[in-house]
Specification:
Oligomer: single chain
Number of strands: 3
Low-confidence stretches: 1-24, 143-148
Mean pLDDT: 77
Distance between the termini: 12 Å
Structural class: alpha+beta
Strand order of the largest sheet: 1-2-3
Number of helices: 6
Number of domains: 2
Order of helices and strands: HHEEEHHHH
Helix content: 25-40%
Largest sheet: 3 strands, antiparallel
Radius of gyration: 18 Å
């Protein structure tokens, strides 16, 4: 479960459009309109219903300079914007009794380095884990296969 690729797409358009009622003939029209208005070169939309993918669509380009089309398996470096989503998800799991702040992260993701065995969920949420910057490991295939 933890090794599955995580696709995060269209975050900027959806976040910026939050609170506004979308008036469009279809999801595709709305996405294209938002991309045009906000100068978003490429995005990926994945629509889920009951935990199953019902629509998976790529829009625009992944590389505007080379005109490389966006694909649904493109990886997005979204950096700190993920913090609020991850924290919300963690607290929903805590609320459901499926996770605790004092759980060790190596119990949750056994593939993590043994040197991280004392790090808790709370350490990760409060930035007191001591885990090095992810950007230092972007090209470390072994590390990225666990994190991404």
């Amino acid at each position: 479960m933890w090794k599955r690729k995580v696709h995060i797409g269209l975050l900027s358009a959806l976040i910026l459009a939050a609170g506004r009622r979308a008036v469009a003939d279809s999801v595709d029209d709305f996405v294209r309109q938002q991309m045009k208005e906000r100068h978003i070169p490429g995005a990926v939309l994945i629509e889920l219903k009951d935990g199953k993918i019902v629509k998976e669509q790529a829009y625009g380009v992944a590389n505007a300079e080379l005109n490389v089309p966006m694909r649904t398996d493109n990886v997005f470096l979204v950096a700190s914007i993920t913090k609020v989503f991850v924290t919300t998800g963690v607290f929903l799991l805590i609320q459901d009794g499926k996770l605790h702040l004092d759980d060790k992260i190596t119990q949750i993701v056994p593939e993590l380095p043994a040197s991280w065995s004392d790090i808790t969920v709370l350490n990760c949420l409060s930035h007191t884990s001591g885990i090095p910057e992810i950007y230092n490991h972007l090209y470390d295939k072994e590390f990225c296969s666990v994190v991404i």
